[in-house]
Amino acid sequence: MMRDLDQYANSVQHPGVSGFEHIETLEIRDRLSLREHDLSEEDRECLRRSDSALLRNVDQIAAALSQVTNLADERTRRQPSARQWWWFLDVLSEVASVASTAGES
C-alpha cells in the first residue's frame, strides 16, 4: 500500500505525462480508496495533498486523458461511485471552466 501511495504522490506532480500514465494513476487511486481506512494520519495527509495536486492540474490531466480514452466510457465500464471523484476529471474540468467564464462576466 505504501508503494501505491508513494507512486500516486509522485505521479500527480507530473501532469504533463501521457494519458496512459494518468489512467494508471487513477487506477492507483482506486486501490488507495479501498484501503484508506488503514492509512495512518500522516499517510492520509499525504493522500489529501496528492488529491489537491491532482485537482490543481485537472485541466491538463483531463486533456491528456481525452487523447487516449473517453472518461464517460471509462465510467460506464468501471461503474465508479461518486466517492471515486477522480474518474470524473472531465466533468470537474468543465465545471471549473464554466465557473471561470462566469467569474469573468
Q: Could you characterize what this model shows?
A:
- Helix 2 crosses helix 4 and helix 4 packs across helix 6.
- The chain starts with a helix and ends with a helix.
- The chain has one domain.
- With 105 residues, it is an all-alpha fold.
- It is 71% helix and 0% strand.
Ordered list of secondary-structure elements with their pairings:
Layout: H1 2-11, H2 19-34, H3 41-56, H4 58-66, H5 71-78, H6 89-104
Helix pairs in contact: 1-2, 1-3, 2-4, 4-6
Poorly predicted sequence stretches spanning 5 or more consecutive residues:
none
**Number of domains as seen in the coordinates:** 1
Helix run count: 6
Q: Which percent range describes the beta-strand content?
A: under 5%
Question: Any idea what the shape is?
Answer: globular
* Helix/strand class: mainly alpha
Label this structure with key terms.
105 residues; mainly alpha; 6 helices
Question: In brief, what are we looking at here?
Answer:
The protein is mainly alpha-helical. It has helices at 2-11, 19-34, 41-56, 58-66, 71-78, 89-104.
